[in-house]
Amino acid sequence: xxxxxxxxxxxxxxxxxxxxxxxxxxxxxxxxxxxxxxxxxxxxxxxxxxxxxxxxxxxxxxxxxxxxxxxxxxxxxxxxxxxxxxxxxxxxxxxxxxxxxxxxxxxxxxxxxxxxxxxxxxxxxxxxxxxxxxxxxxxxxxxxxxxxxxxxxxxxxxxxxxxxxxxxxxxxxxxxxxxxxxxxxxxxxxxxxxxxxxxxxxxxxxxxxxx
Length: 211
Prior knowledge:
This protein is mainly beta and 211 residues long. It has two domains: 2-55, no CATH class; 60-206, Lipocalin, CATH 2.40.128. It is 9% helix and 62% strand. It has two helices and 14 strands, in the order ββββααββββββββββ. It has helices spanning 44-55, 59-65; strands spanning 2-7, 11-15, 20-24, 31-36, 69-80, 83-96, 101-110, 113-124, 129-136, 143-150, 153-162, 165-173, 180-189, 192-206. A hairpin with a 4-residue loop joins strand 2 and strand 3. The longest helix has 12 residues, at 44-55. The model is unreliable at 1-33 (pLDDT under 50).
């Protein structure tokens, strides 16, 4: 049942069915906030414990944080049938929001043009999947990907959008091992995954948390 609750100093919305909690600090002047809750009393202590568990970084976040630092990158991407282009780049990775996410900043060239990309990666405790967004200077869009841990690394899936349409993408990213890690990119064509490119990273320095 949905009922209205008058909240004075701050607005708290609990959506019990999906376990969502949001808090807006500051004064709320006699605003009516809808609160979804079942009939009967709510165990607020149990609810807050559940929310705290959902918000607490765990082993997956610690795994992602292993990439924090500065890296040299060697890029290799397919430009057409039998045609590859290679280049050099740099990437810096740090943790943000108390270790809940990593943020990477990538600088290099692609096909002779300067290229700058920003990525944010984390692990969603509630959905139990890795999440990632990517933005770069070659587009005005944002790519969203979700992934799972596999034997070959974290395997992400998403969709790229360009003026020619949409393309399904798979990214396999390995964790750092002896100062090296790799991203391998695939695109789906005619129902088959086709190698699109790879980036090999070599560590040149260890990073610190951004916050």
